[in-house]
Design a protein that fits this description.
The structure holds 2 protein chains of 2 kinds.
Chain A (H helix, E strand, L loop, with lengths): L3 H56 L3 H11 L5 E7 L5 E4 L18 E5 L6 E9 L5 E8 L1 H52 L15 H47 L3 E6 L4 E5 L1 H7 L8 H6 L3 H16 L4 H6 L4 E4 L2 E11 L28 E10 L1 H25 L1 H20 L5 H17 L3 H17 L5 H22 L11 H12 L4 H9 L4 E2 H18 L6 E5 L4 E2 L1 H21 L4 H6 L7 E9 L2 E8 L6 H10 L10 H5 L19 H11 L3 E6 L5 E8 L4 E2 L2 H7 L7
Parallel strand pairs in A: 12-14
Antiparallel strand pairs in A: 1-2, 1-5, 3-4, 4-5, 6-7, 6-10, 8-9, 9-10, 11-13, 13-18, 14-15, 15-17, 16-17
Helix pairs in contact in A: 1-2, 1-3, 3-4, 9-10, 9-13, 10-11, 10-13, 11-12, 12-13, 14-15, 16-17, 17-21
Chain B lengths: L2 E5 L3 H13 L3 E5 L2 H10 L3 E7 L7 H9 L9 E5 L4 H10 L3 E4 L4 H13 L6
Parallel strand pairs in B: 1-2, 1-3, 3-4, 4-5
Helix pairs in contact in B: 2-3, 3-4
The chains are: A alpha+beta, B alpha/beta.
Chain lengths: 744, 127
């Protein structure tokens, strides 16, 4: 860098050199002139005096005296030689030894003096010539050595030059000092600003202001600006530190939360790329996420199906045709990986809810929201929340399983034959379903529906749920693609079936239970010697099931159904009339009878307000009876509910293309598969399959079904079967029929 | 009144969808298979949106979507597939054929109505 000082000093030096040169030139000329004129005057005086002293001798032609005078002149300082010439130029006398140098230039008489170099010695000599007797007698020539003159001139020059130089340089030094002092504040300013530029964070000390001139003002301004800037910087640094610390603290907290969270959290942008920030659980379960990688592909390495669904769902979101929430709800919810099951939830992060929260410093204000053209929140990212539910699922499954077993055990203690019958029938249904032993798709649906109903009655939830799922699949998928649902049912059945067997034991079905009353009656008949055929009939009846026990089971079923549909205040009236019926023969009918019960509970009970308005008792009543009517064994179920809305049922049957519209076929329509009078499908009923199934079962036993209903006045259904050996009217009737009184 | 066509071979599903959408103020048309659905779309120009099952007798949902979307006048007619979370390839095919999206059964009634309203409101106006 060339400093101002250096520049000024260079300029100063140049000026000094120039001044020295000018002074030198001027003074040297004047010195030279004055010295030369002194020398010339002296020379002329000496030449004149010699001329004067030899004039007389020349006039007298006394050349010896002339010679003496010339010789005497050699004593005069600086006189080198002298000679005298005649007017014709002939040398008359000279002081040269040994001879007059002929090469010596002659002085022109026109000039008073002449500077020459002596031939041979080359000494500088000035020749002064003076005429003697105005030139008549000749001229006197004196050679003066110029060496002294030149030497003293040289000395004078050196002295002069030295003096001028010293003065000039002294002046320069003084100017330099003054300049240095003047520009010292500028240098200080420069240094300070350079230091500041090199290290912006350095501490700045105010510069001294030593004058009120421009530099002083500049320094003062600089001080003010820099101190103010330093103040800002310090303030800023403090704030940055504070914010950094707060952010770090937040980040630490966030990391701590993410590291200790049991859930996996990761965000995915709308292009499907995930962030590298994720909770530790994600890395532990699926490996460290690579930021910017496609989430569907990444997670698809673990569960390809999940990855596919996620990709498709995201594509739908990107298209933006479906509402974002809807599209979000269709992203896959279950993830399977390495024998573990994860539930996956999603949360949409929009430009409105992704702004950072207030940092605890309190000074931070939320950044201005990004304005959205249409004023709607724009989805920016999806927060994926993954939870490992393997343990919960297996625990739940185990608990459900235990609970199912417990319920079955309770049913066994109350109604062992009922459970055994259910199991026998369920085994048959499962066998048929597994082996494809059904006549049609409708038959297949019926089998599933029956199993579902019966399993529900015995609170075998896993089986009834699997049946419900299979029914759903059948309704939606048709006959194809039922394998997963069927496999689930198989799994549920195979899981619980062996355990029930364990509970009931292998020999349970071979014993016959005789009630104490029966025992007493038969014993009395034998004791009274009643006809053996009658006693045999009485004994055989022990193999038949008292309908009272069947009806008691039905009551339980009604109560269970009512509880599940929230109609638990129902009353049940049972009228078994001491009858018995063959268990195995009527089993298919009783099995399908569950549909009638479900209809009665689900359709035959109105809301409390509706009942009260219609003038009915608050508590709904369902009556179930078995009776003998002539040669018919009649099973009756009656409710005091709203009855059947034939119009609506007809309408539905016609719409479905399942009914021809004949008026007299109204009853049949109730039992046409696929039509139900319910608007919605519930778990209990509403698929329109059950009633047709029970009608079929009734017909299969040679029975008829009679439905009486009036809109608003309840439903009564009578199932009439032929009264044969499969039905027993009770010991009293048997004894009476033998014309023998039962009691004494 | 806006008309929605629901094509499903299950009467129960049709009823359920119809009930949900009637409550939301729509008029419903029903078809029990793809062929019926196609005929209804052809004969009724007032249909604003189609909800369509995939597995159906006579003509399945995919075939129906392909046929409906094959006609230029139906280009902007939104079709929503009704499906279970079973076969992703069927849905991909349906989307490729021009279905706007799918609804997984069992579905949330409010969300179904909301989706249908959204789709009808955002349907481009055709000349």
């Amino acid at each position: 860098m060339k400093s101002i000082f250096a520049k000024l000093m260079t300029l100063q030096l140049l000026c000094a050199v120039l001044a020295t040169a000018i002074l030198w030139t001027l003074s040297e000329r004047s010195f030279k002139d004055s010295m030369s004129s002194g020398f010339v005057a002296n020379g002329q005086t000496v030449a004149e005096s010699i001329a004067n002293s030899v004039e007389r001798h020349l006039a007298n032609r006394d050349l010896t005296s002339v010679q003496s005078a010339l010789d005497a002149s050699l004593k005069i300082p600086d006189v080198e030689w002298a000679y005298v010439t005649a007017p014709d130029g002939q040398v008359l006398a000279d002081t040269f030894v040994p001879d007059f140098p002929q090469a010596l230039p002659r002085s022109d008489t026109g000039k008073s003096w002449l500077a020459i170099r002596m031939p041979g010695t080359n000494k500088p000599v000035a020749i002064f010539t003076h005429p003697a007797l105005a030139g008549i007698a000749g001229s006197v020539h004196v050679g003066f050595s110029q060496e002294g003159l030149l030497a003293s001139m040289a000395r004078m020059k050196v002295l002069l030059l030295t003096t001028v130089a010293v003065v000039i340089f002294l002046l320069t030094a003084i100017v330099g000092l003054v300049t240095r002092r003047v520009i010292a504040p500028v240098r200080a300013l420069t240094r300070a600003s350079s230091a500041l530029a090199d290290d912006l964070t350095g501490e700045f000390q105010a510069l001294p202001v030593s004058s009120a001139d421009e530099i002083g003002m500049l320094t003062a301004s600089f001080n003010r600006m820099t101190l103010e800037r330093q103040g800002y910087r310090k303030n800023l640094e403090a704030r940055v530190l504070e914010r950094t610390e707060a952010l770090r603290e937040n980040q630490r907290d966030m990391r701590m939360i993410l590291n200790n969270l049991e859930q996996g959290l990761v965000t995915v942008n709308m292009d499907g790329q995930m962030s590298s920030e994720a909770s530790r659980a994600v890395a532990v379960w699926f490996g460290a996420p690579a930021g910017g990688q496609n989430f569907a592909a990444w997670i698809g390495q673990r569960d390809a199906n999940f990855g596919d669904w996620f990709g498709l769902g995201l594509e739908t979101m990107q298209e933006g045709l479906l509402p974002a929430e809807m599209a979000l709800s269709q992203l896959p919810g279950r993830l399977q990986d390495g024998g573990k099951t994860y539930s996956v939830h999603y949360q949409l992060i929009t430009n409105e809810n992704n702004e950072p929260g207030e940092i605890s410093s309190g000074e931070c204000t939320a950044a201005p929201r990004v304005p959205v053209a249409d004023g709607k929140a724009r989805p920016e990212k999806i927060l994926v929340i993954i939870t490992d539910i393997t343990t919960i699922l297996s625990k739940d499954a185990a608990e459900r399983h235990q609970s199912e077993l417990l319920q079955l055990f309770l049913h066994l203690t109350h109604d062992k034959p009922g459970v055994l019958e259910f199991l026998a029938e369920a085994d048959e249904i499962m066998k048929a379903l597994r082996n494809g032993q059904y006549d049609s798709f409708v038959h297949r649906k019926r089998l599933v529906h029956t199993l579902k109903g019966n399993a529900a009655i015995f609170e075998m939830v896993s089986v009834s749920t699997a049946c419900h799922e299979l029914e759903n699949a059948m309704a939606e998928e048709g006959e194809q693609g039922l394998e997963p649902a069927m496999a689930a049912l198989n799994h549920a059945w195979n899981r619980i079936r062996p355990e029930i067997q364990h509970l009931i034991g292998e020999t349970s079905q071979t014993s016959i239970e005789i009630e104490p009353d029966d025992y007493e009656c038969i014993h009395r008949a034998l004791r009274d010697r009643i006809d053996a055929s009658v006693v045999t009939r009485m004994l055989e009846s022990c193999r038949l099931e008292p309908t009272g026990r069947r009806l008691a089971r039905i009551e339980q079923q009604i109560m269970a159904l009512a509880e599940r549909t929230g109609k638990s205040n129902v009353s049940v009236a049972l009228e078994p009339n001491d009858l018995r019926a063959d268990r195995s023969r009527f089993a298919p009918f009783w099995s399908e009878f569950i549909h009638v019960l479900r209809n009665a509970v689900d359709h035959g009970i109105e809301d409390r307000d509706v009942r009260l308005k219609a003038g009915k008792p608050e508590r709904p009543l369902i009556r179930v009876a078995t009776a003998i009517d002539g040669d018919r064994f009649v099973v009756t179920i009656e409710d005091d509910g709203p009855g059947v809305d034939w119009e609506r049922l007809l309408d539905k049957a016609e719409k479905s293309g399942l009914a021809s519209g004949e008026d007299g076929a109204a009853l049949k329509r109730e039992f046409i598969p696929g039509v139900s009078s319910k608007e919605t499908v519930t778990e209990v009923s509403g698929r329109g399959i059950g009633m047709a199934a029970v009608a079929d079962a009734c017909r299969a036993l040679g029975g008829t079904m009679d439905v009486k209903s009036q809109w608003g006045a309840g439903v009564r259904i009578d199932f009439r079967f032929p009264k044969d050996d499969a039905v027993y009217e009770g010991h009293n009737v048997t004894l009476q029929s033998a014309m023998i009184p039962a009691t004494k | 009144m806006r008309t929605i066509l629901i094509v499903d071979d299950s009467a129960a599903v049709r009823q359920h969808v119809a009930m949900v959408l009637r409550r939301a103020g729509f008029q419903l048309a029903e078809a029990a298979n793809g062929q019926e659905g196609l005929d209804m779309v052809d004969s009724n120009r007032d249909i604003d949106l189609v909800i369509c099952d995939i597995n159906m007798p006579k003509m399945n949902g995919l075939e129906m979507v392909e046929k409906v979307k094959g006609k230029p006048e139906n280009k902007t007619l939104p079709i929503l597939m009704l499906t279970t979370e079973g076969d992703i390839s069927l849905i991909k095919r349906a989307k490729l054929a021009g279905a706007v999206g799918w609804i997984v059964k069992p579905f949330n009634a409010a969300r179904l109505a909301e989706t249908v309203i959204h789709l009808i409101d955002s349907r481009p106006v055709t000349g």
